[in-house]
Amino acid sequence: MNNPAPQQPAELLARLRATFRAGKTKPVSWRTRQLHRMRTLLTERGETFAAALHADLGKSSTEAYRTEIDFVIREIDHTLEHLDGWLRPEPAPVPAFIGEASAWTQYDPLGVVLVIAPWNYPAQLLLAPVAGALAAGNAVVAKPSELAPATSAALARLVPQYLDTDAVAVVEGGVAETTALLEQRFDHILYTGNGTVGRIVMAAAARHLTPVTLELGGKSPAFVDRGTDLDTVAARLAAGKFLNAGQTCVAPDYVLTDPETARALEAALAKAIEGLYGADPAASPEYGRIVSERHFDRLTALLDSGRQATGGAYDRETKYIAPTVLAEVSPDAPVMQEEIFGPILPIVEVAGLDEAIDFINDRDKPLALYAFTESDTTRERLAAETSSGGLGFGLPLAHLTIPDLPFGGVGESGMGSYHGRYSIETFSHRKAVLAKPLS
Ligand code: NAD
C-alpha cells in the first residue's frame, strides 16, 4: 500500500465516504484485519515511535513502550478477543400487545470518524481511538498534534503502510488544517485536548449535528488522609505525577491534606522523587522534558506559588524542570488557577475530609480524583459526594489501563468515553430493530 498524495479535506472525505458506502469497512473480518495490521505496525516499528517520542518529549524507551506502544497493543488485543461478543445483537422482550415478533438492538458503524489528538501521549491518544473507530466498522481521519512533530511525521508516514488507505487517512497540521477538516461533515468527532479548543470543535460539529466525544483535562486532586503510610503514598503519587514530566491528563494535579500530614508528606515526596530519578533528575534517562518553550515559560512562572519543599531547578535550553513540590500553597495562588500539566505538585492544606470535599465540589469536575485512605467511610463518602471522570483509591493513573473501564471526563473534563467496549458504544449507533412476521 502506498501513501496517497495529500488531498483537500472535501476530496478526502468523499473518498473515505465512498469506501464506507461501498461497505468495505463493515465486515468484522476487515475490522480485525485492520487491528492486526495496527498491532504489526506497533511491533515492527516500535523503535521508530520510541525514537520519535524521545525527540518530542524526552520520553525514555521504557516509558514510550509502557504508556504508548504496549498500551495500544493491549487495547488491540483486548478488542480482538472480545469484538464478536460486543457486536452480538442484544434481544429485547416484545410487549404482548404487539403479538408475535422479535426485537433486538444492533451496533451500526457511524461512517467517517475524525480523531484529533494532543501532544502529550501523541501516539497512544491517536491510535487507541482509531483502533476503536475501526473496530466499530468506520472509516477514519486522524489528525496528530503538530506540537509532537516527530511522532506526527512517523504516524503520517507509517500508518498508510499498514492500514487500508481506502478507509484510514492521517492528516498532519495545526490550527489551519484542523479548522479546514472541521468544516467537513463527519459522523463522529473524538477530540482530546483542552476545553478552549474543545468548545471550537463542538461548535463546528454542531453545524452538522455531528456527535462529539471530548476528552479534556482539568485539575485532578489527590486527597491524602491522616494516618496513611506516607512512604507508600509518596512513592505512588510521585510516580503518577512526574511520569512524562507531569504532562499527563490524569496526573494528580495537587494534593489536599491536613497540615500535620502535609509536613510529613513533603519529606516523603522528596525521598520518593530521589528514589525514582536519583539526586539529579536532570541526569536521569527516565525523566522527560517539557514539550515547548511556551509551556516551559508558563510552568516556571508557577514555581514561586508556594514554599519549594523540593525541586525548583530548571534549564530553558533543554526544557528541563525538576520534579518540584510546593508546600503551604494558597488556593488563590497562580498554580491553583489552571491545570498545571507539568512537574509541579502543590500541597494545599485543609482541615479534613469535609473541607476537602467542599474544595473539590467548589471547582470544575476533574478528569480524575485520587484518594489515599484506609477508611471505608472516607472512600464511600468521596465516591458518593463528588463527581469526576474517574476515581482512583490508592493508585493514580492506573484506572485507565483497565480495558473494561470507560475512559472519559464529566463537565469541564469532557463528555463521552472510550476504551474497549466503550469505544464500540462511542463509534456506533445502537439501532433498534423490530421484526414481525407477515403471517
Ligand atoms: P494540543 O495543543 O496538541 O491540541 C490538541 C489538538 O487540537 C491538536 O491536534 C491541535 O492541532 C488541535 N488544535 C489546537 N488548536 C486548535 C484550534 N484553534 N482549532 C482546531 N484544532 C486545534 O493539546 P493541548 O490542548 O495542549 O493538550 C493538553 C490538554 O489536553 C490538557 O488540558 C490535558 O489535560 C488534555 N488531555 C486530555 C486527555 C484525555 O484523554 N482526557 C489526554 C491528554 C490530554
TrEMBL record:
GO terms for cellular component: cytoplasm. Belongs to the aldehyde dehydrogenase family. PROSITE patterns: ALDEHYDE_DEHYDR_CYS (PS00070), ALDEHYDE_DEHYDR_GLU (PS00687). Residues 17-433 form the Aldehyde dehydrogenase domain. It comes from Streptomyces spinoverrucosus. SUPFAM superfamilies: ALDH-like. Keywords: NAD, Oxidoreductase. Transmembrane segments: none annotated. This is Aldehyde dehydrogenase. InterPro entries: Ald_DH/histidinol_DH (IPR016161), Ald_DH_C (IPR016163), Ald_DH_CS_CYS (IPR016160), Ald_DH_CS_GLU (IPR029510), Ald_DH_N (IPR016162), Aldehyde_DH_dom (IPR015590), Aldehyde_DH_NAD(P) (IPR012394). The keyword NAD applies. The active site is at 215, 249. It holds the Pfam family Aldedh. One of its GO terms (biological process) is aldehyde metabolic process. One of its GO terms (molecular function) is aldehyde dehydrogenase (NAD+) activity.
